[in-house]
Amino acid sequence: MCGIVGYVGRTSGRADAGHTALDVVLEGLRRLEYRGYDSAGIAVVADGEISSRKKSGKLSNLLAELDARPLPESLTGIGHTRWATHGGPTDQNAHPHLSDGGKLALIHNGIIENFAELKLELVAKGVEFASETDTEVAAALLGDIFRNKLGGDVSDGGLTRAMELACQRLEGAFTLLAVHADQPDVVVAARRNSPLVVGLGEGENFLGSDVSGFIDYTRRAVELGQDQIVTITADSVTITDFFGAPAEGKEYHVNWDPESAEKGGFPSFMEKEIHDQPDAVGQTLLGRSDIHGKLTLDELRIDPALLKSVDKIIVLACGTSAYAGQVAKYAIEHWCRIPTEVELSHEFRYRDPIVDANTLIVSISQSGETMDTLMAVRYAKEQGAKTVSICNTNGSTIPRESDAVLYTHAGPEIAVASTKAFLAQITAAYLLGLYLAQLRGNKFQGEIKDILADLAKIPAKIQRILDNEGQIKELGEAMADAKSVLFLGRHVGFPVAMEGALKLKELAYIHAEGFAAGELKHGPIALIEEGQPVFVVVPSPRGRDSLHSKVVSNIQEVRARGAKTIVIAEEGDEAVKAYAEHVFYIPETPTLLAPLLATVPLQIFALALATAKGYDVDQPRNLAKSVTVE
Ligand code: M6R
Prior knowledge:
Elements: E1 3-9, H1 11-17, H2 21-31, E2 39-46, E3 49-56, H3 59-68, E4 76-82, E5 97-99, E6 104-112, H4 115-124, H5 134-149, H6 159-169, E7 172-180, E8 183-192, E9 197-200, E10 204-208, E11 220-223, E12 228-232, E13 237-241, E14 250-253, H7 258-262, H8 269-275, H9 277-285, H10 304-308, E15 312-317, H11 319-336, E16 340-344, H12 345-348, E17 359-365, H13 371-382, E18 386-391, H14 397-401, E19 404-407, H15 420-440, H16 445-456, H17 458-467, H18 470-478, E20 484-489, H19 493-508, E21 511-516, E22 533-537, H20 545-559, E23 564-570, E24 582-586, H21 595-612
Parallel strand pairs: 15-16, 15-17, 17-18, 18-19, 20-21, 20-22, 22-23, 23-24
Antiparallel strand pairs: 1-4, 1-10, 2-3, 2-4, 5-6, 6-7, 7-8, 8-12, 9-10, 9-11, 11-14, 12-13
Helix pairs in contact: 4-5, 5-6, 9-15, 9-17, 11-15, 11-19, 15-16, 17-21, 18-21, 19-21
Residues 318-321, 365-367, 370, 373, 416-418, 506, 623, 626-627 line the site of 5-amino-5-deoxy-1-O-phosphono-D-mannitol.
């Protein structure tokens, strides 16, 4: 996810501290590298002009550019690391984007949902665009308002007033930072559903996506609320809402060291990423439907006629991504009535699969580089199939080689064990399923709108689980000596059970298996002995009743043989209490969406257990984040 830094200092402050905007912004960008990015850029205000440099690739590329073409010394600057969403990771698409004849520079994190409509409006006014980004549209809008609506008048708010008016027009999620050559001592920023923190200094002030952006300079920070604008100078911080009404932020002291700041204050990237999940799902949903609940998957550039003719879907993936596919299969078949298979990529092409032009291949890969999945996609293309990639890494090989791509917007996943990417993959696959149902007329628009509304409630529900994680953490710590843990589920709970087991295997190195609960009696029940811990993912009692009661029967079967049962159930399901040693409740949600919630306690459990054993949860032994060999 993009990283953002802003700085304003003053001459005396600079004399004391020796900071220039370039020093501070580059150091901040270096600290924000952990967020993942594929290009970087910087703009400073000096001598009545904006000077900017930007480069695709790592910060070292930007540094080389700055060596070759140095920036003038300045005390006002903004800097950005970009994680590509709209438009590939090129120099042109990198931020900052300029407008108002090069006098205004803007950087952005998030997605402007109505950028296409705004762009048409601006093009009609004669604005020309050089990039494919939504950000350049925001820059042009801000420049147009500053120059044409406010007449470039800086006496009455100037850039701040222009930012208010621009924000009133923007939809989606955004953090924006802008500088203008006519207001050389000011950085103006705005936030909606995207992170931004202010750092308070002496004779200098800072802005960052998070405190890592300025942690080397100050520990005094101000948290902003939603829909707020902040204007910083060297000596002042002024906060308003999008309509100019005064607002307040909450000041706090940052006591993290720089290393833990990169992990958002969490002890590991994995824990941070588990806590990123409300955002991962929220961002993946963002901008993909209109207010009428109509899906608008613009990036899915396959002829709708071809999608209508699909008579079979094959999902190709490995590991956690394959479990996301297995969850999605239930939803896609239910919504679209298209037979859907899920196949491990490395098995697929060695079994002479039946694939033709009416087969839609959906590959799921966080990294977009998994060799097994790449080879399987290539094979399917050779057989004439159409290929859609669900991927978290913009510009990676699998989406590049696929006919279409639906990006998940989980942000970079650094811990080897996949968490937030899993939930984002399920979300994206659900969007694809709903899109196909919309296109093929399998569902009424109102039904799709209702499902999207239920999906939109998921981030807050995940947050509720995270807010109450203490109980499951304690259980994980208490079970550090467990030698084997089994996981049971039915329907969508089955892949969730397998994912819970995989997390435990890869993090805690103990035997763990996920079974379809109905399969127990066909063999696995022989594993149950006195004290065997068994997690059971229980479906909602409000769903298909037989499903709930069948799983409750399965709990009784293993308990009768001495198992210690740990149950994940829906709030209000009192019936399960009688059959469980421990019950962890998740918020009510429709059955098909429940994996987006039920997985979270299992991740927290595995993390807590492995941490109690003293293992490195970010880099488990023998594993690589991206498996680029077959
Ligand atoms: O990058 P991909 O999603 O293609 O990776 C697939 C698997 O290697 C990955 O999900 C792996 O199973 C994770 N370590 C699971 O936590």
